[in-house]
Specification:
Helices cover about 40% and strands about 15% of the residues. It is an alpha/beta fold. The strands form two sheets. It has an eight-stranded parallel beta barrel, surrounded by five helices. Strands 1-2 form a two-stranded antiparallel sheet. The longest helix has 15 residues.
Length: about 325
């Protein structure tokens, strides 16, 4: 596992984060435990979860991760990332960004995880109708009280992040250091039925290229689009993968990855991850979601592949 300093911090983190959204729920406990153990054994130290993972009222992922850390006694060797302030699923248009709701969520996450502090705390969704100032005031209270070390935003546009950081800098406050958005080598055709998601696009990419923020990329494997395409063609793709990623642009990107593969002994999935990791336009930490050890090993191998910037741009079709 390659490491680098997370932008805006002095922390050395692995180049890939492990996503745990279905751990202990859709993914059985034994398999989830094996994946966590193997990830750390191979040098991984960034683990991503959220209060609403595994059920908005059950918080299964955080609780599972908390029990695992307690059993392994390894909290101090990890960089823990979790998210709060997600709207209720049944009322997705009603945000939960009041001071009282934010305090409730971070305190519950700390309890679920069984830890004293979170390394980076993200707001899971935004509400652009609300001013950023009181939100940043509350998050900075969390930093001052030691509940979180750093602030991140998940599914916030770069425009909103910029407004929040202008306020933070003006008032000598802790800024947002990272954005967590949907980003992979494959371009999303549709944003699915959740209008609150923020996807990497040309405007977002240009912003991160010109500002000192890192990107935590969720859905970084694009539902295994390239790997499944390589294994058996379009018939191997799930219905969701077809709807979200099957288009001429991504088929061309697949062809580009196959060209790079002629000179590098790696899977197409690993090369897709490597393009994100090696792109020097801004720091990207892919969040990988793996269901078995083979998938974990393949995705992690992408962190150790070194690509030129020209190769990255050839795969990502961005510059």
């Amino acid at each position: 596992m390659r490491y680098e300093t997370l932008m805006g911090t002095n922390d050395k983190i692995g180049k890939i984060a492990l996503g745990t959204d279905v751990y202990g729920s859709d993914l059985d406990k034994d398999t989830a435990t094996d994946l966590l153990n193997e990830f750390c054994e191979l040098g991984g130290n960034v683990i991503d979860t959220a209060l609403m993972y595994g059920g908005q009222d059950e918080h299964i992922s955080e609780k599972f991760l908390g029990r695992w850390m307690k059993d392994k006694k390894n909290r101090n060797s990890l960089f823990i990332s979790t998210k709060g302030a997600h709207p209720r699923v049944e009322t997705r248009n009603i945000s939960r960004l009041s001071k009282e709701e934010l305090e409730h969520d971070i305190d519950l996450s700390l309890k679920n995880l069984g830890i004293d502090y979170i390394d980076i705390y993200w707001l899971h969704r935004d509400d652009e109708r609300l001013p950023v100032e009181p939100i940043m005031d509350t998050l900075n209270e969390f930093v001052k009280k030691g509940k979180t070390r750093y602030i991140g935003m998940s599914n916030w546009t770069s425009e909103r992040i910029n407004k929040a950081n202008e306020y933070a800098i003006k008032n000598n406050m802790a800024p947002i250091i990272s954005s967590q958005i949907q980003y992979s080598a494959a371009k999303a055709v549709v944003e699915n039925n959740d209008p609150t998601l923020v996807l990497m696009n040309d405007n977002e990419y240009k912003y991160f290229k010109n500002h000192d923020l890192s990107v935590f990329a969720f859905a970084s494997q694009a539902k295994g689009f390239f790997s499944k395409l390589d294994a058996g063609g379009k018939e191997m793709l799930s219905e969701k993968a077809r709807e979200r990623y099957l288009c001429d642009t991504n088929l061309k990107i697949y062809d580009n990855i196959k060209q790079i593969q002629k000179n590098i002994n790696a899977s197409v999935g690993a090369l897709a991850i490597a393009a994100l990791v090696n792109d020097n336009n801004f720091q990207t930490i892919p969040i990988i979601g793996c269901k078995n050890l083979n998938q974990l090993h393949d995705s992690l191998s992408g962190a150790d592949i070194k690509l030129t910037q020209k190769d990255c741009e050839f795969i990502l079709q961005r510059s």
